[in-house]
Design a protein that fits this description.
The chain contains 6 helices and no strands. By secondary structure, the protein is mainly alpha-helical.
Amino acid sequence: MNKAVLHSMSDAERGLVADTERDAIADLTEDELLELHTRIRRTRSKYAKNYRRAASSNVKQAGGRGKGFAQNSRDRDKAEVFELALARVSRQVAVRANEAARELKDERLAAARQGSTGPDSTASTPAGAAPTGRGRQTRKTTGGLKKDASSQSAGARRQAKRDARP
């Protein structure tokens, strides 16, 4: 990071960047990381927006985009510092999310190993009772098989009529 940019920041901004260092985010929870991510994203967006607005107004005065590039470097550099900080926090959020997903998957697998409550489970049926197996499958109809078939063939006729148009 550019030390000159860091020294040009306010104490609050420097503190926000310091909160994203590896040691500082190592022991944060996923919710705390997401809150930090939101704060940094807002600050980064603020400086990126300020840079874009000032750069667009400088184009006419400077005589071109290239000539006005150096005039607005402070906001651009601050936006870059916060972009790097945001990337650090985003990576850590991804790590925490993967850990949480792995833990959830392990819990679900352990619960499934202890006892299944599925339809073909013989452990859940009382002694002497026949296993239920798959129940009767119902058909989704709107009033009967003939009505469904009629509706489907009417749709096919409409499509054939459209396809036959020149």
